[in-house]
Amino acid sequence: MTITSSAAEHADSTAAAAVAVVHNLACECTAVESFAALLAEERAALLAQDADTLQHITLRKAEATHRIAALVDARNRALTAGGFAPGRAGIESFLDKHPQNTSLWQRLRRGAARTQGLNHTVGQLINWRLAATEQALAVLRQGSHAAPLYSATGQPAAPHGARRLATA
User: Fold this and answer.
1) Tell me, which fold does domain 9-145 have in CATH?
2) What is the per-residue pLDDT across 91-135, written as a single tens digit (0 to 9) for each?
3) Fewest beta carbons less than 10 Å away: which of 91, 97, 113, 163?
4) 0.70 exceeded by the pTM?
5) What's the gap between Cα 1 and its chain centre?
């Protein structure tokens, strides 16, 4: 009777692990899709040069990244509990036994690909803005080495090396 009991317990734990894997996949899909929407907001804020919104988005991105990492860890633990390897190899083995969940995995992969593309675009925009800022700073720094246009009193300064031709 103990053999039957052990087999039943194993079947129960395997079924529970399968439910946990599917639940985590669904949660990951939602989290990744939310992250993609957040990146789209960030792209719009960068294009609008809206620094206040960018600061808020940065905080939300950090939270979202931690949430996704926790969901991936939970999925890997559920895979392991079900007798599968963690990671992509494990999920693919899991889907071989549970093909009804393939569409969920495909949804997650599409969301991840969209997120990767948006992240690349945001990175390019940030690099472009940074380069423009660095160029502007370089121009301003060069200007600081030139003779001042105005004196400390706010009056037009004489060009460097110039002499007054006449005084009253």
Assistant:
1) Methane Monooxygenase Hydroxylase; Chain G, domain 1 (1.20.58)
2) 999 999 999 999 999 999 999 999 999 999 999 999 998 998 888
3) 163
4) yes
5) 53
